[in-house]
Automatic annotation (TrEMBL):
The active site is at D34, D174. This is Ribulose-phosphate 3-epimerase. It comes from Anaerosacchariphilus hominis. It comes from the Bacteria. Its EC number is 5.1.3.1. GO terms for biological process: pentose catabolic process; pentose-phosphate shunt. HAMAP family: RPE.
Length: 217
């Protein structure tokens, strides 16, 4: 099933609850929450307190993307703050199996993210344990960047790897996804679509409906 995961990084934080409500009412089922630590990525964003607040007013699937070093120390806290899916970066984990096991133990679904230049071979011995793989289609750290074209082949190759193993793992794509390249990433095999600036700039309800039209075709 295709799903839209609007990234609140591009929302208006002065009216965050309202922006989220618009996206939810227009049909988005996931909410993508970008956590940045100023180490793994250059920028800082937000953490557990904001999540706890928005959790009280939303039944969306909270899809938490941890762009942080040493994610292990925060997994339990994010699960308790309401994360349904927790994503860690392969590049930030020394003991990835242990981290993935900790996510599941905390009661969340486990996802591993790869930066654009990180090869799929990183997933060779962990894929079976994952609910989802996040392929970054920009270098993480900021919203509003341009989609990196070489990622299309990477999505195709990952979908083949998943199918060849008889799995049904979700593939999430994140970064630079707009209406004009949405069909391309879907055709390549992605089924969970993150969109930040394409959803939260302008008319949020219309933007979500336009995405949902393509996603449910
Ligand atoms: C980038 C974040 C993305 C970002 C996407 O580091 O992981 O989720 O918010 O924003 P857009 O859709 O504007 O590229
Ligand atoms: Zn993200």
């Amino acid at each position: 099933m295709n799903k839209l995961a609007p990234s609140i990084l591009a929302a208006n934080f002065a009216a965050l609850g309202e922006d989220i409500r618009k996206a939810e009412e227009a049909g988005a089922e996931y909410l993508h929450i970008d956590v940045m630590d100023g180490h793994f990525v250059p920028s800082l964003s937000f953490g557990m307190p904001i999540m706890e607040s928005i959790r009280k007013n939303s039944v969306m699937v909270f899809d938490v993307h941890l762009m942080i070093d040493n994610p292990d120390q925060y997994i339990k806290a994010f699960a308790e703050a309401g994360a349904d899916i927790i994503t860690v970066h392969a590049e930030a984990c020394t003991h990835l199996n242990r981290t993935v096991a900790a996510i599941k133990e905390a009661g969340a679904k486990a996802c591993v993210a790869l930066n654009p230049a990180t090869p799929l071979t990183e997933l060779e011995y962990i894929l079976e344990d994952l609910d989802m793989v996040l392929l970054m289609t920009v270098n993480p750290g900021f919203g509003g960047q341009k989609y990196i074209e070489s990622c299309t082949r990477k999505i195709q190759e990952l979908r083949k790897m998943i199918t060849d193993r008889g799995l049904e793992t979700d593939i999430e794509v994140d970064g630079g996804i707009k209406l004009n390249n949405l069909q391309k990433v879907l055709d390549a095999g992605a089924n969970i679509i993150v969109a930040g600036s394409a959803v939260f700039a302008g008319d949020i309800s219309k933007n979500v409906r336009d995405f949902m039209k393509v996603l449910t075709e």
